[in-house]
């Protein structure tokens, strides 16, 4: 579990940091006022990252940063002043970055920097460079930013590693390498990994004109000239990864239902189509519809209906936390159960329908019982349209049988529907 330590002696600054942290961070945070209190916290907890003030009443010369680094905690420094001596001193100590406290925007920057570093934790990065010294230096710098780093000694090895590991999110590649240079590597990688999925930063110690432009035109996100300053390296990497995170957030937002936070119909259809490509895997498709939802809207208004939908969504989400759950209509939801036999899925859903019916929903301070009808179908080697048709038929049968029940349509029926198409 990630945990952040913030050390700041100013009440005003600490209050601002608390407020901004609540907006951008979803991790456990401890706030300390002094070096002594910082030591108490460190003795009790393990920290992923520390954001510390350089000057404290009991640590006026950066002792707190020295202490957190000594304890192996990656550290970002806050300071009201930074001369050249202090800057070099901090960088030599090994801090990730420093932020000068001169206005509210600097605190926003500091927390956003921390947020990106926390997102980096465990994120895979790959360095492609034929120089052992260069790879070692960059590996150390990336590990400060919490990346899990792998190395490749040439472009061909890097390409093979990227093909075999889709979880690599950052590639740093030198230009001049044997067997395959940086340009060829970037062009080859972009054939199967887009800019929104993999960030690439080109590197070169050559002084040729146009190298940076060519790297970017071939598909790199950014470029660094060797030798680079530590600060420039960290800033370029962090900004590149932040852009990748923003794109991921936008895509995630586009796939989410604004009311319930579940996946929406668009995502559901794309995800289900991907599953259908796996011809050897059986999947169960569940369609759930809230019974008599119009009556809830009539009694409590649309605000009450929205409250019901949110609570139903939360119940489905927590009950099927390892499955894909989507809101595909007004009061209709879809669940895809992967690698589960349909008979086992039916048993699970029957238990869930009982839990659902006994759950106390609260709408406008009034406790209410709500039931749901469920249609279940198994789909394999068929189209999503056919699978949806079978599950929808099962849902209709559940409603015909008095609602508040689960109806399974067999694989045989599914095959019949597929043949009709």
TrEMBL record:
Cofactor or coenzyme needed: Mg(2+)
One GO MF term: diguanylate cyclase activity
CDD domains attached to this UniProt entry: GGDEF, REC_1_GGDEF
Record keywords, A-Z: Hydrolase, Phosphoprotein
Matching NCBIfam families: GGDEF (TIGR00254)
Protein name: diguanylate cyclase
Organism of this sequence: Pseudoalteromonas translucida (strain TAC 125)
Pfam families in the cross-refs: GGDEF, Response_reg
Annotated GGDEF domain residues: 281-411
Organismal lineage: Bacteria, Pseudomonadati, Pseudomonadota, Gammaproteobacteria, Alteromonadales
Keyword hit for Isomerase: no
GO cellular component term of the entry, any: plasma membrane
Record has Isomerase as a keyword: no
Enzyme class: transferase
Enzyme Commission code(s) on record: 2.7.7.65
Entry's Gene Ontology BP terms: cell adhesion involved in single-species biofilm formation; negative regulation of bacterial-type flagellum-dependent cell motility; phosphorelay signal transduction system
Regions annotated as coiled coil: none
Transmembrane regions listed in the UniProt entry: none
SMART domains: GGDEF, REC
The reaction(s) this protein catalyses: 2 GTP = 3',3'-c-di-GMP + 2 diphosphate
PANTHER family: DIGUANYLATE CYCLASE DGCM-RELATED (PTHR45138:SF9), REGULATORY COMPONENTS OF SENSORY TRANSDUCTION SYSTEM (PTHR45138)
Ranges of residues in domain Response regulatory: 3-116, 124-241
4-aspartylphosphate PTM sites in chain numbering: 53, 174
């Amino acid at each position: 579990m990630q945990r952040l330590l913030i050390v700041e002696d100013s009440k005003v600054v600490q209050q601002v940091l608390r407020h901004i942290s609540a907006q951008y961070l979803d991790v456990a945070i401890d706030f300390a006022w002094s070096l002594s209190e910082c030591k108490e916290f460190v003795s009790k907890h393990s920290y992923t990252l520390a954001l510390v003030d350089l000057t404290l009443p009991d640590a006026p010369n950066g002792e707190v940063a020295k202490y957190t680094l000594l304890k192996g905690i990656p550290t970002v420094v806050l300071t009201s002043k930074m001369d050249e001596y202090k800057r070099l001193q901090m960088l030599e100590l090994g801090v990730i970055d420093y932020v000068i406290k001169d206005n509210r925007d600097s605190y926003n920057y500091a927390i956003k920097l921390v947020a990106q570093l926390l997102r980096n934790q465990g994120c895979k990065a790959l360095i492609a460079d034929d120089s052992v010294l260069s790879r070692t230096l960059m590996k150390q710098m990336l590990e400060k930013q919490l990346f899990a780093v792998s190395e490749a000694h040439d472009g061909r090895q890097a390409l093979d590693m990227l093909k075999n590991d889709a979880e690599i999110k950052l590639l740093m590649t030198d230009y001049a390498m044997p067997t395959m240079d940086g340009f060829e590597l970037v062009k080859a990688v972009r054939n199967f990994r887009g800019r929104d999925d993999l960030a690439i930063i080109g590197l070169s110690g050559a002084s040729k004109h146009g190298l940076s432009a060519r790297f970017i035109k071939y598909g790199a996100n950014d470029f660094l000239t060797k030798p680079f300053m530590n600060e420039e390296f960290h800033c370029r990497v962090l900004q590149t990864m932040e852009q990748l995170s923003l794109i991921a957030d936008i895509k995630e937002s586009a796939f989410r239902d604004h009311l319930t936070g579940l996946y929406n119909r668009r995502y559901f259809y794309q995800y289900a189509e991907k599953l259908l490509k796996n011809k050897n895997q059986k999947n169960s498709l569940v369609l759930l519809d809230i019974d008599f939802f119009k009556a809830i809207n009539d009694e409590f208004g649309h605000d009450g209906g929205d409250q019901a939908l949110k609570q139903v969504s939360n119940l489905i989400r927590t009950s099927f936390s390892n499955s894909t759950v989507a809101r595909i209509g007004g009061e209709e939801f879809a669940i895809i159960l992967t690698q589960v036999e349909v008979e086992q899925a039916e048993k699970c859903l029957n238990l869930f329908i009982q839990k659902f019916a006994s759950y106390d929903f609260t709408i406008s301070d009034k406790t209410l019982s709500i039931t749901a009808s469920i249609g279940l179908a198994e789909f394999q080697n068929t189209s999503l349209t056919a699978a949806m048709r079978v599950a929808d038929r099962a849902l209709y049968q559940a409603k015909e049988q008095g609602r508040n029940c689960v109806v399974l349509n067999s694989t045989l029926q599914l095959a019949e529907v597929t043949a009709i198409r």
